[in-house]
Design brief:
The protein has one domain: Rossmann fold (3-Layer(aba) Sandwich). Helices cover about 50% and strands about 15% of the residues. The chain has helices spanning about 10-15, 30-45, 85-95, 105-115, 125-155; strands at about 5-10, 50-55, 70-75, 100-105, 120.
Length: about 160
Amino acid sequence: MALVRILIDGYSLLHGWPALVPNAARHSHQARGALLTRLTRYRDATLVPITVFFDGQGAPGGTPKLASSHDMEVLFSRAGQTADDMIERTAYRIKAYGEVLVVTDDRAERDTVVNMGGLATSCSSFIAQVEAALAEMTFDLKHHNRREDQRFRQS
């Protein structure tokens, strides 16, 4: 079965990726924006839809809503609910459509998802996967542009 969606614990990934925005607080709008920009590029490279879940309690009042689409969804939990609850529910509901990958450093969360039949990975493994995919995409783009430039110069 093909991977149909990646479900990400946003603050867990931000905590595990300090190099992404070294001078920003983990719960800041700037850090979330940088994370979503990088994940959007990854989604563009892999064509796998992504949903990022943030604990709503971690977002300070007045935090602007982040743009969301079917391919790059951004969700905040409500009061009395956690991102983990939302991830588990979503993984369970969409597993009938194909493989779901959950990204979190919460071992209990990963175990729960795996026991439901989903896939789970740590944030560090996922970060390495993202960086490799983006490096490959950059390499391919450079080669494509070089070939097109040569073709243009020959005509």
